[in-house]
User: What shape does this take?
Amino acid sequence: MDHFDYVNGAMQVEQVPLDVIADAVGTPVYVYSTATLERHVSVFREGLNALDNPLIAFAVKANPNAAVLATLATLGLGADVVSGGELLRAIAAGIPADRIVFSGVGKTAQEMRLALEKGIYQFNLESEPEAEMLSEVALSMGTRAAVAYRINPDVDAGTHAKISTGKSENKFGIPYDRAIESYAAARDLPGLDVQGVAVHIGSQLTDLAPLEAAFTKVGALIEKLRAAGHDIRTADLGGGLGVPYDPSQPLPPSPAAYGAMVCRVTQGWPVRLMFEPGRVIVGNAGALLSRVVRVKQGAQAPFVIVDAAMNDLMRPSLYDAWHDIRAVKPVGARETANVVGPVCETGDTFAMHRDMDVVQAGDLVAFMTAGAYGATMAGTYNSRPLTPEVLVSGDQWAVVRARPPIEALIEADIIPNWVGN
Assistant: This one.
């Protein structure tokens, strides 16, 4: 459920009409709903009610906007970060360091030092060389790092290949069959406190079976590790629960169904469970608002050219992802059309042969379920400024990231003194 609804024939978010935001801020613009964020956190937490003190660490990569993170911090969420920048963003937004988990395959020594200085809860290690580097960094600082190894269980998540992370050919984690050996070596590293096991098999999962298979393997591994004398106290089960993008497709599993599966599979595990939800928290809490530039008749269907582009919302170009496209003020008629942006790439396409509201030049459209992996992946291709972001709460709204002027983009370039001389 989200809080984007039609009232008197026009879409609004909570109590704010979208055309009011578009007129004031310009388009394209991302719009987020506080009420939806609050509801999604509540529903996810309720799904885990039977667990004892789980750590819910929001995947910052899904949406790192400071206002969004601050909202989630007030709701008690921690953070899953994959860079030093995300770590600093999370802390600046009010998320305590002892609720932060550092994941990612390419942590540098500088990032490790920063995380140790801040006092994060756990590092999720992805390789033996990374463990050795972290041990050296920790020893140089006179401390020990709390760690878990991320296990690659060789489970097909059944999602898009570019967001599948738990198969043997993926770059993430250590192979399941090498885990016992890797943990034994980590125990001998003096700068590490080996406390946990981690797993994350992919994103936008629409079936619980792969998750259950991965979690079952984690449970068996915990038993083996504890039998070998390891004090395993945490198990990070990652994230990946899908959200509904296409209303014509079956709904993904609910957080309640997910929580019930987790409780059943992990019953009796002597550990604190950790979770890294991202998309399921913020996906449906956001929309990308765009204005139609013109409608151009194509050979087979009209092209609806909008002022948003692939640099604003990359998912359709990168993943062939589906976003529902709705007119902000629908006229009641439908047509089959192609929705494209102004960037000089054929890949700058949001939808082909889409059954959608009839729109014309000047009309507003909303790309739904754009709160996750939207603004965070935006760029400045074709010298287009980054997209602004707006947060709504009831009848209040605020710009939480302004659109930078194109002059700022130009001024960031430095022309060497030998050019033109």
